[in-house]
Every structure is written in C-alpha cells, then in structure tokens.
Design goal:
- The complex is a heterodimer of chains A (116) and B (128).
- Chain A contains 4 helices and no strands.
- With 116 residues, chain A is mainly α.
- Chain A has one domain: 3 helical TM bundles of succinate and fumarate reductases.
- By secondary structure, chain B is mainly alpha-helical.
- The longest helix of chain B is centred in the C-terminal third of the chain and has 30 residues.
- Classes of the chains: A mainly alpha (116), B mainly alpha (128).
Chain lengths: 116, 128
C-alpha cells in the first residue's frame, strides 16, 4: 500500500527538478522578448523545433503533477489526510486530477497553436 | 587537555537551527505559486498569439509586469529551496555538496535577476 505514496512522493521531486529546467526556459524566453524582434524571431525558431515541443509536453505534465501533488502536501501540512487510507486515496486522486489537468491544458494549447 | 569548558563544547551542537526557516519558506513560496503559476499558464494559453508584438504588448501592462516579476522571483526561490534538498539528499561528500549548493544558489540568483531585468526592460521601454 505504501508503494503509491512512495511513488507519488518521488515523482513530486522529479517533476520539481524538471520544472527548475523549465524556469531556465522561461527566463530565456523573457530575455528573448526583451532583446527585440530580431532576437525573438531567432529564439522562436529554436523554441518551435519538434524537440522543444516534446519538452513543452513534458513540462506541462510536470507542472500539472507538481501543482496537484504540492497542494496535497499543503493539506498534509495542516495535519489532515495523513491516515493510511486517506493517503492511499489522495495518491490516486493526485494521479487522476493531474492527468485531467494535463489533458485540459494540452487541449487548450493545441487550439491556441491552431489559432496563431 | 582542552581549555574549552564542557558547556562550550556542546553549545551549538545538535539542532542545525535553520531547518524551520527552510521548511517555512518552501511552504510560503508554494502557496504563492499556486495562483501565480495558474495565472501564468492561463495568460499564455489565452494570448491571441505568441509573436513578439503581442507578447511585448502584454508584458508592457503594469499588472502583467508586476505579476511576472513576482512569479519569476518566487519560482526561482522555490526552485532553489527544492533543488537544495535534492542535492543535500543525493550529493555525498562535504566538498562536492557545498560546491554544488553554492553554484546552484548563484545560478538561481542569476536567473531571477535576468528574468526581472528582462521584464523591466520591456515594461519601462518608452519611459525615461
């Protein structure tokens, strides 16, 4: 039974480190905006390569998971939900909710991509 | 024989005295990042386009610039605290660990500063 709580905990850490790399990407993007239209166009070419798009997909998964799992941790910090059965249930809740959120964001990103 | 008194030797041993601060800041930044990151994601998804003119116009709004600056700083802070724990858990050897932690701190400060500077550069263009 503790497998679920173990897996959700280590995955929270893993996605956190992935999002730290996402921070690198965010700052690069902000710097590109500040550097002017020409530099931005160059950066945009790099940022729209297939490899970059795969990276965004991974970052969306990481963001959704880390957000939901992080909220679970904040609930735990209030002293609630720490019973074995509750933790088991919330582990599944985190997985299902983060998958749903990932689908919603991917759906929106897909249509945003079609629009522009 | 040492000149230090027994009480002098034990004072300061035991508690690291910094754990609570780290724990508290990690919670504080994570609470702040819930609305901030959702705001950022929704903003990116609802911008009509991600070309330079659109993004610059968006970043030039005071409310956007302000929230972006807070987002970058808090995200970098949260990232630094989180990565620090990972390093403390998995990097063994005092020298290697200290070197890694110092480097990661420098990188995070640099990232936060670069992000804030970029947003300000866009937002304050046309002023002065």
């Amino acid at each position: 039974m503790s497998r679920y709580t173990l897996a959700t905990s280590i995955f929270n850490r893993f996605t956190g480190v992935a999002l730290s790399l996402g921070l690198l990407l965010l700052v690069y993007w902000l710097m590109a905006v500040a550097a002017g239209p020409l530099s931005f166009a160059r950066a945009a070419r790099l940022l729209s390569m297939p490899l970059a798009k795969a990276l965004y997909a991974a970052l969306i998964v990481a963001f959704c998971y880390h957000l939901i799992a992080g909220i679970r941790h904040l609930v735990w910090d209030t002293g609630r939900g720490l019973e074995r059965r509750q933790a088991h249930f919330s582990a599944w809740l985190v997985i299902v909710a983060s998958l749903l959120l990932t689908l919603i964001i991917a759906w929106c990103a897909w249509f945003a991509g079609l629009r522009s | 024989m040492s000149l230090r008194s027994p009480i002098g030797r034990v004072l300061g041993l035991g508690s690291a005295k910094e754990g609570v601060q780290h724990w508290w800041l990690q919670r504080l930044t994570s609470v702040a990042l819930v609305p901030l990151s959702i705001w950022f994601a929704v903003s990116l998804l609802t911008l009509p386009s991600l070309d330079h003119a659109t993004v610059r116009a968006w970043m030039s709004q005071s409310s956007t610039a302000l929230l972006l600056i807070v987002f970058v700083v808090v995200a970098a802070w949260h990232s630094k605290l989180g990565v620090q724990v990972v390093v403390e858990d998995y990097v063994h050897g005092a020298g290697a660990r200290t070197l890694t932690l110092v480097s990661l701190t420098f990188v995070h400060v640099l990232l936060a500063a670069a992000g804030v500077f970029s947003v300000l550069k866009v937002a304050l263009r046309g002023l002065s």
